[in-house]
Amino acid sequence: MRTILRTMLQGFGARRIVEAEDGASGLEAMDRANPDILILDWVMPILDGADMVRMIRSPNNPFAYIPIIMVTAHTERSRIVEARRLGVHELLSKPISAKALYQRVSSVIVQPRDFIKTATYFGPAPREIRNRQKIWQGGPGEQPGGDQGNGGDGAVTAIG
Fold first, then answer.
1. Contact between residue 157 and residue 36 where contact means Cβ atoms under 8 Å apart
2. What per-residue confidence (pLDDT) applies to 102?
3. pLDDT at 127
4. CA–CA dist 120, 111 (Å, integer)
C-alpha cells in the first residue's frame, strides 16, 4: 500500500515523501520530517492508525493541527463516525484510486478547516452526518479555534 501511495503522490508532484513501516516508526518519522500532511492506514502493526491519531490530536502535540487522511478497507458507518470523532480530516477507502487520493489531498489543502477544542473533542471542525446530528458536543462558551497548521515545508508523510 505504501508503494501505491508513494507512486500516486509522486505523480501528483509531491516533493518529499517519508514512509514508515508502523505507527510507532511513523511518530518518530514525523519528528524528523515535519510533514504537511499525514496519510496513514487504520490497520498497522505496533500502533494502529486510530491510536496514532489519538496521540497526535493531543493539544500539546506539536503536530496536533496536521491534516490527517486515514486509509482503510473498513468502511462501515461506525468506523467512519469513529474516524471523525478521532479528528481525521478525510477517509480514503481501499482499494484506492488516484482520483480519490488526489481529491482528499486537494481537499485538505484547498479547503482547510478550523480546529475545535471541546471537553470531548480536539480536531478539525467536523462535518455534519446524514441525520444532521453533530459528532462532537461543544460546551458553553467554547469557540472554534483558527487553523494553525504546522509550518511544514511541503513534505508528505505516508504511513501504512
1. no
2. 96
3. 62
4. 24
To which residue does cell 502493526 refer? Answer: 45
Q: Residue 142: pLDDT above 80?
A: no
Query: CA distances (Å), 22 to each of 31, 41, 106, 132, 134, in order?
Result: 15, 9, 25, 35, 32
3-59 pLDDT, tens digit each: 999 999 999 999 899 999 999 999 999 999 999 999 999 999 999 999 999 999 998
102, three cell numbers: 488526489
Spatial separation of the C-alpha atoms in residues 16 and 59, rounded to whole Å: 26
More confident residue, 82 or 160: 82
Tens digit of each residue's pLDDT (9 = 90 or more) over 31-45: 999 999 999 999 999
Strand partners, 122: 117
Contacts 24+ apart (CB under 8 A), 140-145: 142/116, 142/117, 142/118, 144/114, 144/115, 144/116, 145/114, 145/115, 145/116, 145/117
Bridge-partner residues for 38, per DSSP? 68, 157
Cα distance between residue 157 and residue 95, in whole Å: 19
The phi and psi torsions of 16 (rounded to 5 degrees) equal: -145, 125
Quote the pLDDT of residue 59. 80
